[in-house]
UniProtKB/TrEMBL annotation:
Keywords: Lyase, Metal-binding. PANTHER family: FUMARYLACETOACETATE HYDROLASE DOMAIN-CONTAINING PROTEIN 2A, FUMARYLACETOACETATE HYDROLASE DOMAIN-CONTAINING PROTEIN 2A-RELATED. InterPro entries: FAH (IPR051121), Fumarylacetoacetase-like_C (IPR011234), Fumarylacetoacetase_C_sf (IPR036663). This is Ureidoglycolate lyase. One of its GO terms (biological process) is small molecule metabolic process. One of its GO terms (molecular function) is metal ion binding. Its EC number is 4.3.2.3. It comes from Streptomyces jeddahensis.
Length: 326
């Protein structure tokens, strides 16, 4: 397990297990974990179940974190799993201004008559217009992509250009449908880290270009969304619109950007999604990835690579890439 980076606030929530034990919802405070099934007297409790009763249980979680009683376990003796099992994953694409500009330039046709500077200026104007017209770009991911924050990432044999996309993820606190922007943050329980892996070779349908993007193929392999290590309550994050998102590949910094570069913040994304879909407790809203992906650097993921992702106040996840065995 990676070295503990203390999350913001008095506590965080996660899913843990002792050696040979079953996963349990845990309260992390300092470097200790409290099994919330025993502490709350609910043997069947899950982390998602906590979010289904978020308003009721949040004061109790505060009390447990400051009380100090109960049977606490050392974190370094536990396995850390993905902190929650969502029913739905909503993913925001093209949400970081510089990231989109870099991607568009990287995917330019060799026959494009524009200079790089002209292309960048044109794409920047499009981004500014999208922001002004309030048009986020959101698609849906599969819960089966979720993996733990320290699990190995298996690179499928068919994925010719696997890439990283570290991003801030918001966790939904209560059902949200047709929520105004002004109230949207009231529906967010907390925040965590997601690495939304993408196979760049299969993003676009080459057989039928008119169909456009193929999100099933390029993003939904098992384990393609390492999540966590834990969820920090929203009240402990002063401004989710001003957090540092950093990804290191084999120790070298590849992504290092503030969430200030997002075109659409958390409230606008939650509100926009809720115009169409009903968000449920424990669901994830991934907010997009900043500049610095592998396609930009001309260096995609391969067997043995180690990714270390961090976001201000949310801890660090560390995953190793493993080539799929035939």
């Amino acid at each position: 397990m990676a070295t503990l980076v203390q999350p913001a606030g008095p506590f965080a929530l996660g899913t843990f297990s002792a050696p040979d034990g079953e996963p349990f919802p845990g309260l992390l405070s300092d470097d200790r974990v409290l099994d919330l099934r025993a502490a709350l007297g609910e043997p069947a409790l899950t982390t998602r179940g906590i979010f289904e009763r978020w308003a009721e249980l949040l004061p109790l979680l505060h009390a447990l974190a400051t009380d100090g009683t109960g049977t606490w376990q050392a974190l370094d003796g536990l396995r850390v799993h993905a902190p929650v099992e969502p029913r739905q994953i909503f993913q925001s694409g093209a949400n970081y201004r510089q990231h989109v500009i870099d991607l568009e330039v990287a995917h330019r046709s060799p026959d494009d008559p524009r200079t790089v500077e002209e292309a960048r200026a044109e794409i920047a104007a499009i981004m500014d217009r999208r922001a002004a017209e309030d048009l986020p770009y959101v698609f849906i991911g599969l819960p089966s992509t979720i993996a733990g924050p320290y699990d190995d990432v298996v690179l499928p044999s068919w994925a010719a250009k696997p890439d990283w996309e570290l991003e801030l993820a918001a966790v939904v606190a209560k059902p949200a449908y047709r929520v105004p922007v002004e109230e949207a943050l009231e529906y967010v329980a907390g925040y965590t880290i997601a690495n939304d892996l993408t196979d760049r070779a299969t993003v676009f349908r080459r057989d039928m270009p008119a169909i456009g993007t193929d999100w099933l193929r390029c993003k939904n392999a098992p384990g393609f969304t390492p999540l966590g290590p834990w969820i920090v309550p929203a009240e402990s994050i002063a401004d989710p619109g001003d957090l540092r998102v950093t990804l290191k590949l084999n120790g070298e910094t590849m992504q290092d950007e503030s969430t200030k570069d997002m075109l659409f913040g958390i409230a606008r994304l939650v509100s926009y999604i809720s115009r169409t879909a009903r968000l449920l407790p424990g669901d994830l809203v991934l907010t997009g990835s900043p500049a610095g992906n592998g396609i930009h650097w001309g260096r995609l993921l391969r067997d043995g690579d180690v990714m270390e992702g961090s976001i201000t106040g949310l801890g660090v996840q560390r995953t190793r890439c493993v080539e799929e065995k035939a």
